[in-house]
Amino acid sequence: MKKNLVIAIDGYSSCGKSTLAKALAKKLGFIYIDSGAMYRAVTLYFLRNNINISDDNKVIDALQHIELNFHSRDYQSHITLNGEEVSDEIRLMPVSEKVSEVSAHKIVRHEMVKQQQRMGKSKNIVMDGRDIGTTVFPEAPVKFFMTADPKIRAERRFKELESKGNNETTLEEVFENLAHRDYADTTRKESPLVRAEDAVILDNTNLTQEEQLAFALERAEPFLS
Question: In the chain, count of helices (H) and strands (E)?
Fold first, then answer.
């Protein structure tokens, strides 16, 4: 198998990008990098430390005090923020409500892109996010752009929150949050969410996890040897 092969997965919030990316990485023996978790962890740090996103100097200083790392446990990818496991906390609504604003910041994006590119220099990786196939790894040979019906996406996200014990958020609030994030992600100036011309569209509205994995593996197969 080739070394330094990147599989890039982009798409809208709650389309199952991380689910597919994890399954692909496990099946192929690749390393899974959740770029969205990186932006969420930065957002969590900003919230905890009352960082004003409009103050560039504060943002630059804050980024110098943020160390992000990924590790695997039970076949799942976990992220630590300055040594603290934050994989669950970054998925809660306070972070979800602010992550689009933080991730749209030019300074934040440039720093995260540099980190992501370093991760893909010498390893076989699967990375998901909003601009992986367009900005981070535009030369990636395998690219997917994921989408799904907005109502289905909201229901999936709502069930995920419920499974983690968050019973305070309503389905309507989740739907509105996703709509807001879609608008923010597709209209921001820095690396907006857009399908790369050579990305394969994967609409999983009516697909099972097994079916979407089979779809992705079939299209990745020619590049694996």
Answer: 9, 8
